[in-house]
Amino acid sequence: MASCCNTRCFLNRKFPLQLLIVLTMTTHLADTETGAPVELKGEVGGNVTLQCPVDRERPLIFLYFQRGDIFVNGYHASKPLTNTWENTRVDRDMTMHMEDLNVSHSGSYQCHIRYHDGQINLNHTVFHLSVTANYSKPTLTVNCGSENHRFSCWATCASHGGYPGTKVTWTIPESQTRRDVNNTQIQDPHTMLVNSSSTAFFNCSNGKLTSLSCSVGGVTSEMFTVCTPKTTPETFSPYVITAAVCAVVVAIIIALVLWFKCKKGQRRAAAAATAVVAAAADVQRGNECQEELTVLNET
What we know:
This protein has 3 helices and 16 strands. By secondary structure, the protein is of the alpha+beta class.
């Protein structure tokens, strides 16, 4: 709802000539001095307050907070005000409280005041509100591979939900060269918040490890490493090799000892079995001889 509280708005309406003369005279008496804008800063989802310098000694007819020609909220001595912004309220001290800020609330606001004595303060105080949003902690992803017999890495840094739009800043050692492939900023048409990202290419032909990070709007990512060498066969120290050889030799000796013991046990078992068989044979032969002697005696 646009609010008319300056001379042009009044003159656009059909008032009697006498009232026009009075308005013109009171306008010339008005305090129209405008000082330096009051800078206000807020964050998305936060709150701010706007307070106009009202003369408490003079009866007040109205006080309007406007953004350009758009009525925001205010006070009127003789009637309730409608079409006020839902996220605003004006207290008894003529202070406007603005809550649940979003990016669209950024801009310049003015106080329009009129007293019962006819004086009008137009744009006496100007507020310039800047609404910002913190970016999320950037995420950094790294992909490496070989191309044209060269080992290289691609690193992508991304952050979202910030305002105003800000480019990605890379932090890398001076010895490492990079090539920025892209640096994009995409704004949501509804929330006006920005997603910022960047991809960088690293030539890893020198084989050096590089630790890097990225930042967006003052928020920094974790440290990441690029140009990690390809996996190479693991080498062992002479001490490790000697210990391994000794372990193998000991294992072989233990195996031989166990084998000899097993063979010796097998031979003993075979000898015992042979002795048992021989004894059984002797017993059998003795029985046979005894039977022959018995037959001879009978005959």
